Each structure stands twice: as structure tokens, then as C-alpha cells.
Amino acid sequence: MRIGDCNNPADFRKLARKRLPAPLFHYIDGGADDEVTLRRNTSAFDKVRLIPDALADLSNLDLSVNVLGQDLDWPVFCSPTAMSRLFHHHGENAVCRAAHRHGTMYSLSTISTTSIEEIGAQTPGPKCFQLYIHKDRAMSWDFIDRCKEANFSAICLTVDTLVAGNRERDLHSGMTTPPRFTLSSMLSFFTHPHWSVNYLTSKKFELANVSATIEEGTRKLISVIDYINSQFDRSITWKDAEQAIQRWGGPFAIKGVMSIDDARRAVDIGASAIMISNHGGRQLDGATAPFDQLGPIVDAVGDRIEVILDGGVRRGTHVLKALAMGARACMIGRGYLYALAAGGEPAVDRALSKLRDEIERDMILMGCNSVKRLNRSRLHFD
């Protein structure tokens, strides 16, 4: 299989599995515990059917949306994902450039392998920074100041990762940062020489935003689970979120909201948006899917705050269902990570292009010329 043979996330996943050493593939692919929530995130879309109209003028389509103060050409943007350079040496830079070419926003993780400053200089396109509050509060607030200097457009505070979910695939594979070449993992790395050569000959691995302060995960081998458990601050509250909003002073989202009460709290502290997310099924297994919660949350706060759906989006029809339910936009993470792992920047380009093509085609088949006209009258509920 080649990049040109990949037409959807499932295809890119197959190619990524061939090209990545097992610990890295399973880090992207896995979820928590029995991975019930991981599977539910996508299957939840199946409970709703689309109702098309006919004989509409579809000579011009409008897919544009305004999200977190940014005008995007289409209603999907890139979720923050950690350590992208582990999966391909093009890393975060590749996804940022591809997102800009496709008229959408890129989001950078706190625990990325490329710095805030480097991503800020990559493109003039919109960028969001995902803030994890570490035990070192001074460093955490410094992230916000650095984003201002680097001309980031928005910040999202992730609130669902105070402790790492039970990601048993990582425990079985021995996934560490940087990767540990042990006897048990050596065969997998040996049988993926292209990845191994690129990793060993490219820029040295580091968690670029924290490397000057934190040794773990940069110069000291540590599992991803141990990094989260040792470095992230479990004492954060809504007061801390409010302080971050005030320090930033611009578009700000709370990522990881799953309840109506939390959605209302986000409104009360002045957040610009909420991202309904369960961290891709990687945290609390058995949690409800973001799409399951979308309707109730939109009904409760949708007229006072932007509601963004993050989780399980694989198809253009998933995006249309979410928008019809009331989401402002959707985010994808695995959807571009599989592509990055499969073939770097050209593959990410193809993945984004294929998804946008699906949305455009599905809009025509729906008889709808603007995403702003999607509403629940276009949905049938099982």
C-alpha cells in the first residue's frame, strides 16, 4: 500500500501500522482499559441518520466557519497531539504547514517535540496552544506569555488529564519518551529500518516546550503515563482556569468538558468555547462519547458559548451530523496522526484533502449549500 492508495483514516491506519514500530503505533491507536469508550466515540454517530433535501441550488458551497475568533475555510481543525516527531521526523511542523495550506487551524500540545516559537514562525495561519498546567505553575503561566510572543491565535486548557488513563497497550509495549531500545522492543524497531534511521539521524528528541525545565521525557527515559502522573498538577480548579483566561486575554477554550454543569461553569468564567472531549477514549473508559453529549450541552449553553466536538470523527458525514446537532466545528487527532505516521507531510495533505472532499460531496448530496444551514431538522434519531 502507498500513500496514493489511502482514501480514509482506516487506510492511513493500515499504512501507519506497517511503518511504525509497535510501541509507537499502539500509542497512537490505543485507549484506556478495555477501549469501550474509544470505540464508542465513532460508533455514536451511527445512531443518527441524515435527511437530505432535493432540487436545491448547489452551484456554490459555503463551508466556512468562525471558530475561536478565526475564519476557517471549512469546519474541521487539527487537535493537539503530543510528541508528533516520534511518529514521523516531519513532526508538528508538517501538520502545521498542511493545516495552513488547507485553510484551517493547527493546535500544538504542551508536550510537543517542536517549540511554541518554532511553530509560531512556521506559517501565518491560525494556531491554538493546548495548555496542560504542570506542578511548576511559573512554567505553566510562562507558556501563555510565550504564546503571546509567538502570535498564537487561541489557547485551550485541557482539564481531563490530571492523571493518566490506564493505557494498557503502552504498558505492554513499554512505550517511553524517548523510545527505549530494549531486547523486547528491538525486533520491532529492527524491522522498521526506515523509521529507525530517520529517528537516529534527525534532530534529537526532546519535549521542546519543557526541556529547559523538566528532565523527565527529554534526557531521562520515562513512560508517558509516568510523565503525566509526575508532572501534571491535580490541584487545579475553576479558579485556575479563570486565571489562565485572564492572563491570556484572548480566545480561550476549555477542552475535556463532558457535562452540562461543567459547560455552564465554562460560560461563567468567561471561556470563549468548550471542546466536548474524552481525550480520544484514552482517559476514563466507560465514559460517554462526545457526540452523545453534544445535543444536551448545545441545548444548555449553545447560545452563550462556542461548542466544538472533539472525538471519533472519521468521515465527512460525522462532521455534518455534529454541525446539524449544533457544534460550531469538529477536531481531528488520529485522523491526521495516522497519515503523518504513514508518510509525513504529503500524507497529512492527502488526509485533510480527502476529508474536505467528503464534506463537500456530502453537502451536495444533502442538498445543503452552507454549513450554517445545517440543523436538527436534517437529522433522524433512532
Description:
With 382 residues, the chain is of the alpha/beta class. It has a single domain (3-381), classed as Aldolase class I (TIM Barrel, Alpha-Beta Barrel), CATH 3.20.20.70. Helix content is 43%, strand content 14%. The chain contains 15 helices and 14 strands. The strands form 4 sheets. The protein has an 8-stranded parallel β-sheet. It has a two-stranded antiparallel sheet with strand order 1-14. Strands 2-3 form a two-stranded antiparallel sheet. The longest helix is centred in the C-terminal third of the chain and has 33 residues, at 334-366. The protein is globular.
Overall structural domain count: 1
Element-level helix/strand string: HHHEEEEHEHEHEHEHHEHHEHEHEHEHE
Derived structural class:
alpha/beta
Return Rg in Å: 20 Å
Kindly report how far apart the N and C termini lie: 37 Å
**CATH domain fold name:** TIM Barrel
Q: What amount of the residues lies in strands?
A: 5-15%
User: What's the overall geometry?
Assistant: globular
The number of helices is 15
CATH superfamily: Aldolase class I
CATH architecture, by name, is Alpha-Beta Barrel
Q: What's the CATH C level?
A: Alpha Beta
> What is the typical, i.e. mean, pLDDT?
92
Strand tally, please?
14
Into which percent range does the helicity of residues fall? 40-55%
Stretches where pLDDT is under 50 for at least 5 consecutive residues are none
